[in-house]
Amino acid sequence: MLKEMIPNVKKIKRPTVAIMAFILGVALSFYLPIDPRVLFIALVVSLVLLAFRYFVVLALWLCLTVGFCYCHLFIASINSNLVTPGCYEGKIVSVPKSTSSVLEAGFKTNQGAGFAIQSDEEVFYYRDSLEICFESGSQKTAEGGYGRYLLSRYQSRVIVKNPDIKAVSPNRFWTSFFAVRENISNILRRIYIGDKGVLASGLILGGSQNFSDSFKVAMKSSGTTHLVAVSGYNVSIITIVLFMFLRKMISRKVALTSSIVILLAFCIISGASASVVRASIMGGLFIASKALGRKVSPLHLLLVAVFLMILQNPFALFDVGLQLSFFATLGLVLSLDLFQFDTKRVYLAALAVIPETLIAQVFTFPILLYHFEEASIISAIPNALILPLVPLGMLMVFVAAIVGLINMYLGIFVGFGGEILLRYFVGVIRYFGNLSFSKIETQPVPFYAIVVFYVFVIIFIQVLIRKINEKKIQAGV
Q1: Whole-prediction pTM value?
Q2: What is the CATH number of domain 86-170?
């Protein structure tokens, strides 16, 4: 499946390197201030490169500089829209996220100021127009890791708890849209009891709020939490299967339009997290390239997706979900040539999931250690046992949910196959998650160690691929 979405590309093209330079410039802007000295150095370097006619390097340097300046201008625009206690009218601009009994979402005033609101009493939906009032005691500016999370999600460190909310104009379309999501989730939790129902809902809609505490621990220890944090794997299934099916049934243009619309709807209904947005953009670009009959570098698709997200919000670089999604995909892209399977044979194609899972775990391992100071060391095993069956599980659960909306008893009957798979998933997760040696805990990992790790792994993979290609050439393959 990944081979369909990730074609083989022999070299990195200049547009890809230019995007990498821009992203690097954005990243540097969080560590270097924009002052006359920095601007002077940038100007001197540009003139030196121009004088020696290093035009390609100059172009990359300018891309880096543009990214650096863009991020600082973005930060300045946010700082100029600080809010004070009072009453504001505006809209909910992010998909509300439910944590325990608290509902959280981004709110943007009609004047352009943005911040996060939390409420344990009121219910609101995406794109609802609200009037909110709050006093100084309700407003808080978060720092540290939580502050970076708020910036990555809502473009603001400010969070307002339990403001007085008045629904000025509820958005009926999105209210109905998410009511369907909630109805499907409830149906699945009635068809599949306990943790199986939450897992069924999580496979197609995302979310893990209603798992039992013991199962949450087991998922974390076994490294399988991504199953209910809708990821690029889920999006790739929808992208490839849906487009290929529609293209055979109807015209290419209709298949393109329908697939992108459904992909957009899935992105929003699953919560529009940074990892899902990244995967959805890549999926949309993949569909477009297929429709146009062109092959596009997978690395280019990945970087374009991140580039578009950064344009909308440079703080997306702080999102842990995006970091995990990016490096997992990067690992698969860079190591694709290491594993060649005959995708025409189903059982061999399924085997490809094992090395792909191992590579993804290797590339996400340091990120987990850096942010959480713990990570599963056996995650490749339960993931290899579960992931090949996830597409079938998603299909069975989805069919059971649709039938269940019509008749609950018929939905339970149709969902019997999904019941068997879900029991298997839960059994694997609990077994490996309860092993005493399933995870390791460390002291805080320095940032430079993460950089060194990725440089070493990437160089190692490229050297290994080169050796394999040389042997193929010598063997006349």
Answers
A1: 0.81
A2: 2.40.50.140
